[in-house]
Amino acid sequence: MSSLALKLTALFTMIIDHYGAIFQSDIITYRIIGRLAFPIYCFLLVEGYFHTSNIKKYAARLLIFAFISEIPFDLAFYGEIGFEHQNIFFTLFIGLTAVYIIDNKKINVNNNALIVFAASVLASLLRTDYQFIGIIYIFTFYSMRNQPKNKKFTVLALIMSVVNIAAGWLQEFSLLALVPIYYYNNKQGRKNKILQISFYIAYPLHLMIFYLINTY
Fold it and tell me: What angle, 0 to 180 degrees and rounded to 10, lies between the N-to-C axes of helices 88-103 and 131-143?
């Protein structure tokens, strides 16, 4: 599967998950399907880190859309604007920053575990989506990226299954995301600026649409 195919898989499963959470909370199937989305986004974040020509612009896009998405996120899931839970772009931004610090030799931080711990605490304090679980996902994809395939996916499955315990049994279905990731072919697929920005816009847009449908 190309990067584009994984992005589409993550996008559609995320929308299905959010539809279920907002409109059909009694039907667990939607939430199970939705468990595929976030691990794929974490994997793509790490791949994006290694392929981007400008890490600062990449991080800036994540942070900008984190703020853009916060109002639609709050309205869609809580019906009002608040600070009890922040959207997934904040988690991805914190994870990307942690990876950059770990990988950047100029910063010279030798204790990777301390960086992951600090990022996990920050995500948890800010109550970002997936909190420390998301940071551990991102770091695991980063640290296992160049390992032999069988070893990589064995470790990924083991670590994900352990940290998922903190989120409850439903999150264990996130391991299904490893199937499409396993078949990633290291190709980007079709790529242009419009398509790139569309994947960012899709997040706040579908949440606002769901909020309006649910309200009116």
Answer: 40
Per-residue pLDDT of the chain (216 residues; tens, 9 = 90+): 899 999 999 999 999 999 999 999 999 999 999 999 999 999 999 999 999 889 999 999 999 999 999 999 999 999 999 888 999 999 999 999 999 999 886 565 568 889 999 999 999 999 999 999 999 999 999 999 999 999 999 999 999 999 999 989 999 999 999 999 999 998 876 777 888 899 999 999 999 999 999 998
Put simply, whether the predicted model's pTM sits higher than 0.90 gets the answer yes
